[in-house]
Design brief:
The complex is a heterotrimer of chains A (270), B (291) and C (292). Chain A is built from 10 helices and 12 strands. By secondary structure, chain A is of the alpha/beta class. In chain A, strand 6 (143-147), helix 5 and strand 7 form a beta-alpha-beta unit. Chain B has helices at 6-42, 48-52, 65-96, 100-115, 118-132, 139-163, 167-175, 180-209, 227-231, 238-248, 252-281, and strands spanning 54-56, 61-64. Classes of the chains: A alpha/beta (270), B mainly alpha (291), C mainly alpha (292).
Chain lengths: 270, 291, 292
């Protein structure tokens, strides 16, 4: 009796091993690291890819664009994620844009303002304008919420509004979601966050900049000025593993476009 | 003069009592507010779906099963390593130690470990386990960091329970010709089991509540993993998940649901520790292991 | 046979000795690592500029690495938490140990134990949702995330430690002391405040040390309520503590950069602070109360 059981067990194990081999296709781990703004986009791509390729595990560490670039340079991750262009000092890397993302200027839903100009944004964030009434709003002190220094969102915001090194922030938070939360909880607040994260959130209002609404269409045709690319960063001269290459190809393909749009960014795949 | 001021003294006595009641009442209020808020905001979101699935971007749902599993995995890893070492250290301190000075040094070191804040453990854990030893962010690195943190708890409670084993029992065994290790193995340890168990439960309680030490060692990953996979894969425990959902994703309902879960776990662990402590205080006859 | 037994005994003795010195090894490891990791940045930035510089801006085009804001914030925060938490905690302990009817005492005792076990992130969460908006409304600020919020959260966090350890110390006061005092005509509270408390001095002091240690080392609870901007501390300003400075920038400071090394140096400073605090307080306790 015992012997029969043992043989059956061994056969079952062997069969399952064979089946597993047959069903696998690709296997391995793909590690991505970087921008917190790309969370929704990468999350959707990761989930779809993992359900299409059950043997592969894709991990995402939301550490900020700066760290992501560093990680791919050091080889501690396969694909770096940066929500900004590469700097001149970041050599030996290739950035492949998979989407464009608008940086929405958000205020609390109870704020009476609806539109703001680039100059007004700059003066609010540098502390020149201290009260909402100077911008046409209510008599409340302006509270600027921004991101940490390694953030791609901050980098994009500051370079386009010309406020690099000059921002006076009431709070410095480490993710796009945290900024949205903080603005939701404070009537005086103004902040900047990725459009893909800010869309559809209750409790905040996305301002129009110079009369231009922040939407996928205006980001795509460039009329909305405050935008930046979502980049997949890879090391020059290095070869990605099969699984990582497959994920890369998937993310840059047209098949991913619908997922990217759902996540709120503007796909750039041709 | 003083003794005829009885009325004044009684009045002051009443005033001081009032102050005491006020303080206790204030503490009570703070407690009730905290627990009340957590239950009020969290129970509604604590659904079966939340605790039994993982988060999905495609379906736009949130699930904390991976985090629950990660917490259990890390308790296991940390205890499996810390128990032998901690019990061993306590045994050395109470049974074997020859030089009083060495005992004092070890006890001083253990005391020092309790005072170090968890963020520093996380920092050093990252330096040693991730950078020096080359491990990946995951349950293994996180568990090893926690080992250093809970070691003092285990050493202390084991020491206390070892001290309650009457010397007479040890001497009896030694008189029968047993070597020290044999005495420890067959007489001392079996009778100290309850205390060691209490130490385990206390340590588990500490692990459940830990977050700062795990941020950079166990990571923020929300992917569902089996035990082997989680060891070297970025895995967020319940506390880290609470932090992320609350401050970065703005899902305060989910965060409070996790808080409810943590509250429940803490309550259960406290009750278990109390029960185990009572059992070990009421021990009567010695338990002797057959060699 | 006897030789094998003896060899086994020796072996186990070695094993246990190794286990014993593990704690010492860990403490040394931690100290050594923090020093190795923390010194380079201090050397490059300059000790004086690092400790007493008032501007922390590691990523500006002209970086500044002064951590005085963090040091002062940690000191003020801990002091504020102690100011609020210690009196409340000790008086509650007196209530629990002496004045409370037994059923209420045991109920409150269980509740305090539960509070002690609650993870720090949960305190941060409740603070973020309840305290921060309340402070904002009460004081008409533009953002409620400030030093005051952190102090309140810390005070609530150290309350359970102070209450339970002080309560134990008070209960351990020999009844004869109190009975003698009452026999001499003192009232209840006079006895508790003038006899029991002084007799329990070392236990109460130990509870304060425990509470202070917890307050200065706390990171997660206050990161959610204090605003995290590297300002010089002000009660209603957004501030960063030594602990939250490490926690908030570590995940994105580039490996090998001066910024990251400066964060390790902050860790080293925090470590030294705590060692000094413990040493100082232990000295004060030994001098003042005398060990039992």
């Amino acid at each position: 009796m015992k012997k029969i059981l043992a043989v059956l067990l061994a056969a079952a194990l062997a069969a399952s091993a064979l089946c597993a081999c047959a069903a696998k296709g690709k296997s391995g781990t793909v590690s991505t690291n970087g921008s917190t703004s790309m969370e929704k986009v990468i999350g959707a791509l990761q989930e779809q890819f993992m359900s299409d390729n059950p043997g592969v595990k894709v991990t995402y560490d939301a550490t900020g664009s700066g760290t992501g670039i560093e990680a791919v340079m050091n080889g501690t991750c396969d694909i770096g994620l940066a929500s900004r262009k590469l700097k001149d000092t970041e050599t030996g890397l290739t950035a492949t844009t998979i989407a464009l993302d608008g940086i929405a200027i958000i205020v609390n839903a109870d704020n009476s303002l609806g539109d703001i100009s680039l100059d007004q944004i700059a003066s609010a964030f540098t502390g020149e304008t201290k009260n909402w009434k100077d911008l046409g709003g209510d008599d409340l002190e302006i509270s600027c919420i921004g991101r940490e220094s390694g953030s791609g969102t901050r980098d994009g915001f500051e370079s386009i509004t010309g406020t690099a090194d000059k921002c006076v922030l009431a709070q410095e938070l480490t993710s796009t979601g945290a900024v949205i939360e903080a603005v939701k909880n404070s009537k005086n607040a103004i902040g900047y966050a990725s459009l893909s994260a800010a869309q559809g959130q209750a409790g905040i209002k996305i301002l129009t900049v110079g009369g231009v609404e922040c939407s996928e269409a205006t980001v795509l045709d460039g009329t909305y000025a405050i935008q930046r690319p979502f980049n997949l960063v890879t090391k020059d001269g290095g070869k990605l593993s099969d699984a990582a290459q497959a994920f890369f190809d998937f993310a840059t393909s047209k098949a991913a476009a619908a997922l990217i749009t759902n996540a709120g960014a503007v796909p750039t795949a041709k | 003069m003083k003794d005829t001021g009885m009325a004044k003294r009684l009045a002051r006595d009443r005033a001081r009592r009032g102050l005491l009641y006020f303080c206790a009442g204030l503490t009570c209020c703070i407690l009730l507010t905290m627990i009340g808020e957590i239950l009020y905001r969290g129970l509604g979101s604590l659904t079966w779906k939340l605790v039994s699935t993982q988060s999905s971007y495609l379906r736009n749902t949130i699930g904390i099963l991976p985090n629950i599993l990660n917490t259990l995995y890390i308790i296991f890893v940390a205890l499996v390593i810390a128990l032998p070492v901690g019990v061993g250290a306590a045994v050395y301190l109470t049974e074997y130690a020859a030089s009083k000075r060495l005992v004092r040094v070890i006890e001083f070191a253990t005391e020092t470990l309790t005072g170090i804040p968890s963020i520093l453990f996380g920092l050093v854990g990252m330096l040693v386990f991730l950078q020096l030893l080359g491990l990946q962010e995951g349950i293994l690195a996180g568990g090893l960091t926690l080992v250093v943190m809970i070691l003092p708890t285990i050493i202390r409670t084991t020491q206390e329970s070892l001290k309650t084993v009457p010397d007479a029992w040890r001497e009896g065994a030694l008189a029968l010709g047993a070597g020290k290790w044999r005495v420890v193995r067959t007489v001392v340890l079996p009778n100290a089991m309850d205390g060691i168990l209490t130490g385990c439960i206390l340590a588990a309680g500490r692990i459940v509540g830990e977050s700062a030490a795990l941020l950079f060692t166990a990571g923020f990953g929300f992917v569902l993993n089996d035990f082997a996979g989680s060891l070297q894969s970025s895995s967020a425990t319940l506390t880290v998940a609470l932090y992320v959902y609350a401050s970065e994703r703005g899902e305060t309902g989910v965060a409070f649901a996790i808080a409810c879960l943590l509250l429940l776990l803490t309550l259960l662990l406290n009750l278990a520790a109390d029960r185990a402590a009572k059992k070990f205080k009421n021990r009567e006859a010695p338990v002797c292991r057959k060699s | 046979m006897r030789k094998r037994k003896a060899a086994l005994e020796q072996l186990m003795r070695m094993v246990f000795l190794l286990c014993g010195i593990v704690s010492v090894a860990f403490v040394l490891l931690i100290s050594v690592y923090l020093i190795i990791a923390g010194l380079p940045a201090i050397r490059e930035i300059g000790l004086w500029k690092f400790l007493f510089g008032t501007k922390w801006a590691p990523t500006f085009s002209e970086p500044a690495y002064g951590i005085l804001p963090f040091i002062l914030t940690s000191i003020y925060g801990t002091a504020g938490a102690a100011l609020l938490g210690v009196p409340l905690g000790v008086l509650t302990a007196v209530f629990l140990a002496k004045a409370a009817p037994p059923r209420a005492a045991s109920l409150l005792h269980t509740a305090v134990e539960l509070l002690a076990g609650i993870p720090s992130v949960v305190y941060g969460l409740v603070g973020m949702i309840l305290l921060v908006p309340a402070i904002q409304r009460l004081f008409g600020l533009s953002s409620g995330a400030c030093l005051l919020a952190a102090i309140l959260v810390l005070a609530v966090m150290i309350l359970p430690s102070i209450v339970s350890v002080s309560e134990n110390a008070l209960r351990a006061v020999p009844e004869e002391y109190e009975q003698a005092s009452l026999a001499l005509g003192a009232t209840g509270t006079e006895t508790w405040f003038r006899v029991s408390l002084p007799a329990a001095k070392s236990g109460v002091a130990a509870s304060i040390v425990l509470g202070l240690g917890r307050a200065i080392g706390e990171a997660m609870a206050i990161i959610m309520v204090s605003g995290n901007v590297a300002n010089m501390p002000g009660l209603f300003r957004s501030v960063r503590f030594l602990t939250t400075a490490v926690a908030s920038e570590m995940s994105y400071a580039a490996v090998g950069s001066l910024q990251r090394q400066a964060l390790f140096s902050i860790g080293l400073v925090l470590f030294l602070f705590i060692m000094l605090l413990n040493a100082f307080l232990n000295l004060v306790i030994k001098k003042g109360g005398g060990r039992r």
